[in-house]
UniProtKB/TrEMBL annotation:
One of its GO terms (molecular function) is glycosyltransferase activity. The keyword Repressor does not apply. It holds the Pfam family Glyco_transf_4. This is Glycosyl transferase. Keywords: Transferase. It comes from Xanthomonas perforans. The keyword Transport does not apply. Residues 14-126 form the Glycosyltransferase subfamily 4-like N-terminal domain.
């Protein structure tokens, strides 16, 4: 099968979501599945050729993490050509929301996971103004 994994964070970032997503990707590949990872481009990125890198923005006090910006149209075009059998959204930020819209538009099964209460971290990173949006 061919899977797409959508995530805001991925190694070399070191956090629970990045490590969990990398473990999922590795496990699927080990079992013979094709996996495309969709994530924000990081500085000095050395992504494999099957990764789709999108634009991202940093939080004021967490420059090492870039959350993905919405990319619905780009994802629709990409997934029309790659035709994943299913999509997993690991983080439901702006990139994750646009991935769910694109999957729905194309009729591709999509599942999400809840790994982090980002709304609780936002004040620590100078983005308390995003708490209401994060809770929706």
């Amino acid at each position: 099968m061919r899977y797409a994994i959508v995530t805001e964070t991925y190694p070399p970032e070191v956090n629970g979501v990045a490590l969990t997503v990398h473990g999922l990707e590795t496990g699927l590949r080990t079992r013979g599945h094709q996996v495309d990872v969709v994530r924000p481009r990081q500085s000095a990125d050395t992504a494999p050729t099957d990764a789709l890198l999108v634009r991202g923005a940093s939080l004021p006090r967490y420059p090492g993490l870039k959350f993905g910006l919405p990319a619905t149209q780009r994802l629709v075009r990409h997934w029309r050509s790659t035709q994943p059998d299913a999509i997993y959204v690991a983080t439901e930020g702006p990139l994750g929301w646009s991935a769910m819209r694109a999957a729905r538009r194309l009729g591709i099964p999509v599942a999400t996971g809840f790994h982090t209460r980002f709304d609780e971290y936002l004040p620590d990173y100078g983005a308390a103004w995003l708490q209401g949006t994060a809770l929706r």
